Amino acid sequence: MTNPMRGVFAVPTTPYSDDGDQNLDALGSRVEEVLASGVTGLLGLGATGEALALSAAEREAQIKTIVSAVDGRAHVVIGCMAYTPAEMSAQISDAAGWGADAVMVTPPFYGGLEPDAVIAALHPVLTASELPVMVYNNPHSTGTDLLPDHLAALQHTGRLWSVKETSGEATRIRELRDRLGEDTEIFVGADGIALEGFAQGASGWVAASAWLLPDHCQRLWELADSGDWAGAVDLWRSLGHALGLIEGDSAFISLIKQALGRTGHEQGPVRPPLPTAGPDSLASLLDAIAELERKHAA
């Protein structure tokens, strides 16, 4: 790959067959469809991909399927989320061996760690990493909010490629850009505030919704990146409604999967204990998507 690692990274769900196994054929087919939108890359084995519900063998199979399906046409980033630094590093090594271009790590879940302790844990992981690293700041899930000064302490490792920012703080993208400069990419990680993040100087968007609506998500980024803010705002009025319905639902993974299923892209259920979206939520989302497509044909 030679194109810059900025822009839209779609986050795949993990399709399952009726027998509960991964449906790797469905995954590969959807990769092909999403790539046609022009996204910069895919970020596999994130929370949207139910990574923590997969066995080691399933992880390997999924990574190899994504890398093979992409076939060098886009960047492949792999989530390497684990409780211990040693396990993170082992997952990074595997991802590198199976053809990933970069990886994503998070603070250890359920640790209740202070930010300085998180940085101390991540520092050796980044230092030893064979691949560029995205650090995912997700205080809602990890219990730790990594501020710009904390993340700056990882820059000298030479492996801090980017930050995925989902704290929801109104000015955080701008603060990260100001503190980390242009050498570290800053990605919006919360779909419902994508346009606001672009306006603050984000490098792009790690978008679960781009697995469902890749053309519209890619178009929003292109409009903003080119400075066509009037066009971006016009699109966002409809796209933002649909994305807000997804992000505001605790069963958002199921919601994405069911919406894809209604359009002929079967993804199967979510694995327990993840919740299943109800019919009213699905109906509201499908109505919002229909309105989006009526106003902004892909």
CATH class: Alpha Beta
Distance between the termini: 26 Å
Tell me the helix content: 40-55%
SSE succession: EHEHEHEHEHHEHEHEHHHH
Number of DSSP E strands: 8
Query: Which ranges are low-confidence, i.e. pLDDT below 50, for 5 or more consecutive residues?
Result: none
The pLDDT mean sits at 96
Radius of gyration: 18 Å
Number of helices: 12
- Characterize the overall form: globular
The helix-and-strand class reads: alpha/beta
Can you identify the CATH superfamily?
A: Aldolase class I
For the largest beta sheet, what order do the strands appear in spatially?
1-2-3-4-5-6-7-8
Fold-level CATH name: TIM Barrel
Explain the overall architecture:
This protein has helices spanning 24-35, 56-70, 85-97, 115-128, 139-142, 148-152, 172-180, 194-199, 214-225, 229-247, 252-262, 279-295; strands at 7-10, 41-44, 75-79, 102-105, 133-137, 160-165, 185-188, 204-207. By secondary structure, the chain is α/β, with parallel strands linked by helices. It has one domain (7-227): Aldolase class I (TIM Barrel), CATH 3.20.20.70. An 8-stranded parallel barrel has the order 1-2-3-4-5-6-7-8, surrounded by 5 helices. α3 (85-97) runs parallel beside α4 (115-128). The two termini are 26 Å apart. The relative contact order is 0.13. The mean pLDDT is 96.
